[in-house]
Amino acid sequence: MKTITIPESKIRETVKEYGTPFHIYDEQTIVDRLNNLMSSFSWVDFKEFFAIKANPNPHILKIMKENSCGVDAATITEIKLAEMVGFRGEDIMFTSNLTTIDAYQYAVDRGCIINIDWAADIYELFENEIIPDNICFRLNPGSIENEIMGDSKESKFGSTAEQIKDAVSFLAKNGVKSIGLHTMVVSNENNAQIFGEYTEMLFEFAREIIDEYKVEIDFINIGGGIGIPYQPEDFVDLKAIAGAVNEAYDKVLKSNGLQPKIYMESGRYITGESGYLVTEVIKEKETYKKYLGVDASMSDLMRPAMYRSYHHLTNIDAEARGEEESEVYDVIGSLCENNDKFAIDRLLPKSKLGDLIVIHDTGAHGHSMGFNYNGMLRNGEFLYTTDGKVKQIRRDETLEDYTTTVIGGY
Prior knowledge:
The protein is about 30% helix and about 25% strand. By secondary structure, the protein is an alpha/beta fold.
């Protein structure tokens, strides 16, 4: 059984005033996850760089800033979002790929940490006299597999160890004394052993770089990838994950007199559990299966359609009336795509038209992955604040918003 951390009365008040569907986030959950992360990694000089892609609303980013985080930006737009709420310089890590010279120039001009995906870019940067103050390289080890990210040999991200070594050799010859290293090879991963294994590999590589090129490794960004308990029976042991990293750090680095800072770029772990997509049953249909049609669609939450991922559903009206009967449903949206389904063959309380269904764990990669297929207008976002109020942090999109970029003459 998964509980909803936002009071039901607040959800119903929001529905009454604004209608459905909408995303709503619990600020206290976000703060709690941040505190858990900081506490678990307190054994090292640690900093979290929240992955903006998970939830780019400036109100959410402001919570990160108020809790001493940095941010990880994948695009110039994400850097600009970070700047809107006051992030500056080394509090922004620019982790992009297929990066243009103009994008590099923008990030370097603002003093961001430049996390280079394709190591050979460093030569082009120097040729164009764009010299970052803070340079980091993204390693693709080619040896890690994860259910979501797959075999790292198949990943478009990062550079090989030899490519990075060549780039570091070039930098050392050009007087660069300190760099950072990074890898991101797991997603929604809860197995502490995997974190221990890949960080030990990364730490060993850092030591090789130090020994061979006599440069300092200022920080090691071990990526994000910590999962959340989407299934009611799931459990994420953050202490065990941090402990596995700690063991690898002590074994490979600290024992050799090396104590680089450790950075992370967690997104899902910080905001995922905070979010709920609230939607209403608008149609019941029965053919070869029983369907519950809701007014949200995969344009509001793409993960179940894209990954067949599980999101827990709570029918708060069925619970309120003490519904004892159950039915097996496909819970579907209205897009002209057969994969527009939030749940397949899901056992739920017998549901009725007008029932409110709360879809759990939508605070990361939910609204941020929204789109306008079929002319679906993107829906609003709300924040349930730590002082017990509901604040609208994004209004519903309108037709005018949708068409504002259309050129006249039609």
